[in-house]
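Incident log, structure service

09:12 report received: a user says their structure output differs between two submissions of the same chain.
09:20 pulled the input from the user's history:
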Amino acid sequence: MKKHGQFFSGMAAMALLGLLTTGALAATDQVAFNQAGIRMFGNAEVQVGENIVAPNGQEVPGVITYTDASGNTTNYLSVRKVAELFDAPVSWDSATNSVVLGRSTSQKSDVQVTTGSEGDGAAQLPTTPKIGAVAGPFTEVAPGTTVAGSGAMVWLNRASIQSDTGIRQRFSCVPGGVVELSVTNNGTTDQTMNVYRPITVSEGGMETFQSIRIPAGKTLTRSFQVSADATALTRVLEMNVDSGAVPGISDLVITAKEHLPKTK
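09:34 re-ran on a clean worker, output below:
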């Protein structure tokens, strides 16, 4: 379900300093495939002996080991796999003949989950979210959704907040769980609830869900399923609630809880 940028057709999917296309090296004993794996945060992401499936369906080596004349070895890793592990969008810049990692503020995001964004006028926004929208490992599901055969439910936050600047909260979610965010607007001004997934390697980049209006006196509840394969860097969800350009004090009651998958 990852939506990082794709290499353009004709671009070698692995970008391993030319080792996959250098016949002289491939014909010698200096190069070996898949003799090493990749681990991150204690988890085996690529096993020894395992190939990686490229976007075009081709199986390519996960790790290439080069041995020089002195017997010293160097492991070359897939740029795409490393970028995926570090939550970095990856693309190809034909103008500079370069692999591009991360996204700068000058680049337009290639991920648009639904319409609506932080700061929109609340009066023009819907009051119900679009179920099924996806951002990284998160899918918006119907409120009340729980995990099949679920384990415990844990509170992430419960708070009453009065503020003239709105509030912003960040949650590190459990893979396989369901996060439920609820906001009660006790004030007299409509509020806007924005939910998004920050992109780790970017200048403030994010994958956004639809912005939703919370009328005065109403409660909005939204739920998000977390993919079981979400990584430590991709399983972060942020929520922002404010009144946009309308001045005044917000009076909010916010709760956040998570239904966890049952542990073995």
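09:41 both user submissions now match this output. Likely a transient worker issue. Closing.
09:42 reviewer note: Residues 1-25, 108-120 have pLDDT under 50 and may be disordered. Helices lie at 23-26, 79-85.
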